[in-house]
Specification:
Elements lengths: L2 E2 L6 E2 L8 H22 L53 E2 L3 E4 L5 E9 L5 E10 L5 E10 L5 E5 L2 H7 L22 H8 L30 H4 L13 E3 L9 E3 L27 E2 L16 E2 L3 E3 L15 E3 L21 E11 L5 E8 L4 E9 L7 E7 L13 E5 L5 E8 L5 E9 L5 E11 L2
Parallel strand pairs: 11-13, 12-14
Antiparallel strand pairs: 1-2, 3-5, 4-5, 5-6, 6-7, 7-8, 9-10, 15-22, 16-21, 17-20, 17-22, 18-19, 18-21
């Protein structure tokens, strides 16, 4: 398959291709057009191949056919084509450097260049290259790049950006400015801008020329101290008598004053109106129960009261909410003060607890702890049941004990026991217990003789008060 050249896109047939006169003619036309462009670019007939060096675009000054030297007049445009740059093409994968124009000194040494470039970001521009060499002969150069994007964005860059900024007295893009003060210039702070935005359009400095209170007949000027009496108001900082409020006269209209509340200041309220807070006990007088005529107080609305506060009458059962016993903190109710109550009025009554051991192996003549429960202070009915599997000889027991220590004999330190003589069955024991504090109760299993047998234990408790 044929290929093409880089600059003029000439077709290069493979050795196996058939010669095609049309291809040859096309190549010749492209070469002729390119040579014609070179004649136009230097503004003269193309009569000497040495007028353009092997580096396309570098003008030679040592031949007869050259661009005129200083003092001569050059006509036409100087065009230098860089075939590897296509401004309308896709962004290149690497920067494309076009043919440069060299500037040389009297000795023929290059001192600078101008070179077109297309960068990988799609911007086009030129590089201005200044060249020199040190006293030791080391080449040095500085490059200024001027770019422009298709959207008109311009950018610049130099090899030594800091040195360039210093040379033109420019600050770095990351530089900052201090906020302005009353003595030094600077940038406006965000706080000052907020204050400025808060000033209404047309605002101006206003001057107060005089002040006159409601009780005064003429205006005062200068530094004026306005008192409460000047404007007919009550002072918020003046000392007042404790436990008084600002109110109209008791029972009539009139000028308000600070006084204590009286019963007439407080309307008759249903208990449901008290929705938050708790009255101190000393704020509640001795009341007959008949004074509470409607509604039910929530438990958290009732403070801790001594029973002696209830001095007469009997509360209806529907006036007493479900209360925890901790609400009654002192005193003893007379029997006449307590109505007939349903069990639901007593918090915690009928609470049920249980434990299940699952299957365990019970050895011969050894107490085996099956399961346990821990009960708070109160009175309970306890039931222990142990079911044995497999046949055996001798007696088997279900035993109720207290704490973690196993009894030394089945009948010692026990609340009760149940037994079976033989066989694949179960036995139970029941007891009423009254712990005064948190107490652990354990269901034990014990068999008199024989090999280890599987068993399963249960313990259950119901609070009765």
């Amino acid at each position: 398959m044929s290929t093409t050249t880089t600059n003029l896109n000439l077709t290069k047939p493979e050795y196996s291709d058939v010669a095609d006169v049309a291809v040859i003619n096309t190549n010749m036309d492209r070469i002729d057009t390119a040579v014609g462009n070179l004649n136009t670019a230097v503004g003269m007939p193309y009569s000497n191949a040495n007028s353009i060096s092997s580096r396309v675009g570098t003008l030679e000054t040592s031949t007869a056919a050259k661009v005129a030297k200083a003092g001569d007049t050059m006509t036409g445009e100087l065009l230098i084509k860089s075939s590897n740059i296509d401004r309308d093409g896709a962004n290149p994968s690497e920067n494309k450097w076009g043919n440069a124009v060299d500037f040389i000194d009297a000795d023929g040494e290059t001192i600078g260049q101008v070179q077109p470039v297309r960068w990988t970001d799609g911007t086009d521009g030129v590089r201005i290259i200044a060249q020199n060499e040190t006293s030791e002969g080391t080449p040095v150069e500085n490059v200024l790049s001027i770019k422009v994007a298709k959207d008109g964005t311009r950018s610049y860059g130099v090899d030594d950006d800091a040195a360039f900024r210093s040379a033109i007295s420019a600050a770095a893009s990351s530089h900052t400015h201090s906020a302005a003060t009353t003595s030094d210039a600077g940038f406006m702070s965000a706080a000052d801008k907020t204050k400025l935005n808060g000033i209404a359009t047309g605002a101006q400095v206003n001057t107060i020329t005089g002040v006159k209170g409601n009780e005064e007949s003429s205006y005062r000027t200068g530094n004026v101290n306005i008192t409460v009496s000047d404007i007919g108001a009550y002072s918020s900082t003046a000392s007042r008598t404790a436990n008084t409020v600002m109110a109209a006269p008791n029972g009539s209209n009139g000028v308000g004053s600070f006084r204590k509340l009286v019963a007439a200041d407080i309307p008759a309220l249903a208990a449901s109106k008290i929705t938050s807070g708790t009255f101190d006990a000393d704020r509640i007088p001795n009341l007959a129960a008949g004074k509470i005529t409607s509604g039910t107080f929530s438990a958290d609305r009732i403070p801790n009261l001594a029973a002696g506060k209830i001095t007469s009458g009997t509360l209806g059962a529907d006036r007493i909410p479900g209360l925890a016993a901790s609400k009654i903190t002192s005193g003893t109710f007379d029997a006449a003060r307590i109505p007939t109550l349903s069990a639901s009025k007593i918090s915690g009554l009928g609470t049920y607890a249980s434990a299940d051991s699952g299957s365990k192996s019970v050895a011969n003549a050894t107490y085996t702890a099956m399961c346990s429960i821990t009960l708070a202070a109160g009175r309970y009915v306890l039931h222990v049941n142990v079911g044995y599997g497999g046949s055996g000889s001798g007696k088997r027991w279900a035993v109720l004990g207290v704490g973690n220590d196993a009894p030394t004999k089945y009948y010692e330190d026990l609340f009760g026991e149940g037994q079976i003589v033989d066989g694949n069955s179960s036995c139970s024991v029941c007891a009423i217990v009254t712990p005064s504090a948190s107490t652990k109760y354990v269901a034990w299993a014990w068999q008199e003789s024989g090999s280890a047998k599987p068993a399963r234990g249960f313990i259950q408790a119901i609070r009765i008060y």
